[in-house]
Amino acid sequence: MYNRVLNIQKTIERKSLFLFGPRQTGKSFYLKHHFKNALYYDLLKTDLFFRLTSNPSLLREEVLADSDDKIIIIDEIQKLPVLLDEVHLLIEEYGRRFILTGSSARKLKYGASNLLGGRALTKHLYPLVSKEIIDYDLERIINFGTLPAIYDSPEPIEDLEAYVGTYLKEEIQAEGAVRKLEKFAKFLNLASITNTEIVNFSSIGSDLGLPAKTIREYFRILEDTLIGVLLEPYTKTIKRKATTRAKFYYFDIGVANILANRFSIKPQTELFGKVFEHFICLELHAYLNYHKIRKPLTFWRSKSGYEVDFLIGDTIAIEVKGSAMVKDKHCRGLNALAEDLKLDHKIIVSMDLNRRLLGDVEVIPYREFLQQLWSNQLVTN
Question: Which of the pair, 166 or 15, is modelled with greater confidence?
Fold first, then answer.
């Protein structure tokens, strides 16, 4: 039981919503805990699924038979998008409120589904973030990620292996998103190895014997099924021209690790620094989404080799280092970017024990940085 940052109680009082999130992020548990009196339809139950498949209007008949005007929850709506027509009618004609969950947006985006024409807002539930875990264990997160059931599991590796197998079977094969599942499985492994790095579609395609166009589509599948995100580059700099290619991050550190077959990641190693960057990326991404901050999260890399891991909007630049002692050389990317941008904050998040200044660069221990972030002291809308 975790106290989740997401809060949709006020939203649902005035409007229906889609709640998206990868499998096992806790969507069903969250809704059953907060909306105990709701009418609940779980489309993972085969008998219910087939009953509504053969007669979608049953949903309308059953909802209207309930005189209490309860909230209606439909779990895994992407399994039966035709129900959205009934949902649309019930919202428009009868003022009913729905929470529609999904672990994939692919069928809804590309299947000509009725997306309710703005009648429902979209929210996301992510794996656990630092604010939701009392006394979180960084080394455990770096190795096994933060999916709720896996973070507490006595057998996290076995659970992660099962999770990846379920994803391939249920989210990819069941949707018919790829023709050759074995090729896609190899692609997942390559994507995990290049996780946190700039994506080269041609290079990955060459390794798999597939065209770059197919690799680009594979990454889009990962985004649509909520398994990963492409972080776009910041390209507004003038003095130093920036790369235009994106970086990729899996939605969970543990999933990336199991795909890359790597565990026992220890501090003060190169791999730790890479995964530590992944950890901070997921925290920033979740924070901006949960708090409805509409400033883009990007990264910057100049064609001459300067780099900053993350930018929030145009004014906050963040570099992430797994080092326990940040040095002047670690400030080069931030200082180069500052020649083009007027930055309010130049931050290095690190394993340092104490906060300090290197010129105008703030070196902040990661726990202090995350506390500042989730206390809304760093970013404003």
Answer: 15
Each residue of 322-334: pLDDT tens digit?
999 999 999 999 9
Q: In angstroms, how far apart are the furthest CA atoms of the chain?
A: 69
- What's the domain count of the chain? 2
Edge-to-edge strand ranges of the sheet holding 98-102: 39-42, 72-75, 98-102, 16-20, 120-124
Tokens of 33: 């805990």
Average pLDDT, the chain: 93
User: Do residue 93 and residue 136 come from a single domain?
Assistant: no
Q: Is the pTM of this model over 0.85?
A: yes
Give pLDDT, residue 245.
96
Tell me how far apart the alpha carbons of residues 309 and 280 are, in angstroms, rounded to a whole number.
10
The answer to the question of residue 1 being in a domain is no
Q: How far apart are the first and last CA of the chain?
A: 30
- CA distance linking residue 27 with residue 36, whole number of Å: 14
The CATH code of the domain that includes 115 is 3.40.50.300
